[in-house]
Amino acid sequence: MERLSGELAQMCAASETAMSDATEALLDVSLAAAERAIGSTDELDRAAAEWERSAFSLLALQSPVAYDLRFVVGGLRVVADVQRMGGLAVHVAKITRLRHPDHVVPEVVRDLFTRMGEVADRQAAESVETLRQLDPERAEALLHGDEAMDELHAELLATAQSEEWRYGVQAAVDLTLLGRFYERFCDHTVEIGRRVIWIETGVAPS
Amino acid sequence: MERLSGELAQMCAASETAMSDATEALLDVSLAAAERAIGSTDELDRAAAEWERSAFSLLALQSPVAYDLRFVVGGLRVVADVQRMGGLAVHVAKITRLRHPDHVVPEVVRDLFTRMGEVADRQAAESVETLRQLDPERAEALLHGDEAMDELHAELLATAQSEEWRYGVQAAVDLTLLGRFYERFCDHTVEIGRRVIWIETGVAPS
């Protein structure tokens, strides 16, 4: 069980690294960073499938109840969240690669994307610690981490849709997708927080 | 167990209806249809939470193994997919409501969205039947249903990003998000197919 908990944290750390690579790729127009993010997905998918198999064996052979059962059932959802976070990092990196050597992020929203990257990174790092410690108080803090991201995302859409937008439709479409990927990444960290609270307390946060 | 399987199909049918309402809202600029889609989410979330509780009780009290355990574990993932499909329908409906009484979909991509709505509806209807019958052959057919959607989605992005785009940035941003919501909706039906195959055969499709 301890091994399974450590593995969840490890997978989450891998998706944190993937997103931070993807953000670096985006802001520094770095193909190397993009390839790192894209290349990380196979290992994450493999680890997630392996985790599911272990969880299934544990359910079949040990018939856990109470806390242990919540950990396994909750963990199955967390694995899905973490895997999806890695997938979203890959989506971000692929847009950078598609447009390379052009910049995807115009100067006017560079600061916004820097902050979106920071929020994503902070939430992912907090998710890793929350999973490592299975700490419901840390998990509680995760629940509100998406608010900062939602504000940044709304600001991004408003900027791209404003009369003053000078960067054309292609850039606006790319940025809309990117914004959505960061927002969803963050949503999954909130879900991880909710699941850890449920595992630890038996009560789903409303 | 039969009850749980029927409930999965029922929830999936609810998300199918929500998406078909959302598509109607979008194409007919119908606020009533948008409100129907948006209003359906509470019941779906309640049913999904209830399903999870039943599955947890079943694991705790009956310690199922083999097929029965696969059904419950796979079902927990299917519930998440179905719930998310409902959420995506709500996102589509909310864009319609936000822009009402303006059209969101310009004439040039109306046919594209009609077809995206049809693919989403067909995949969702097939998912309902697959869940009702737990039929791995039906599930197999679901696996390729996202290809048609991916093509339509690529065509939409290419249209919005082309030199000939005459509908401005705001419309392009809205359509980018809408396209993404339809594409993700379809991805979840593929996931349902994969899960049903795993439940029935014990082997995850590659």
From TrEMBL, chains A, B:
<keyword id="KW-0963">Cytoplasm</keyword>
<dbReference type="InterPro" id="IPR028366">
    <property type="entry name" value="PhoU"/>
</dbReference>
<dbReference type="GO" id="GO:0005737">
    <property type="term" value="C:cytoplasm"/>
</dbReference>
<keyword id="KW-0592">Phosphate transport</keyword>
<dbReference type="GO" id="GO:0045936">
    <property type="term" value="P:negative regulation of phosphate metabolic process"/>
</dbReference>
<protein>
    <submittedName>
        <fullName>Phosphate transport system protein</fullName>
    </submittedName>
</protein>
<keyword id="KW-0813">Transport</keyword>
<dbReference type="GO" id="GO:0006817">
    <property type="term" value="P:phosphate ion transport"/>
</dbReference>
<dbReference type="InterPro" id="IPR026022">
    <property type="entry name" value="PhoU_dom"/>
</dbReference>
<dbReference type="InterPro" id="IPR038078">
    <property type="entry name" value="PhoU-like_sf"/>
</dbReference>
<feature type="domain" description="PhoU">
    <location>
        <begin position="9"/>
        <end position="95"/>
    </location>
</feature>
<feature type="domain" description="PhoU">
    <location>
        <begin position="114"/>
        <end position="196"/>
    </location>
</feature>
<dbReference type="GO" id="GO:0030643">
    <property type="term" value="P:intracellular phosphate ion homeostasis"/>
</dbReference>
<comment type="subunit">
    <text>Homodimer.</text>
</comment>
<dbReference type="Pfam" id="PF01895">
    <property type="entry name" value="PhoU"/>
</dbReference>
<comment type="similarity">
    <text>Belongs to the PhoU family.</text>
</comment>
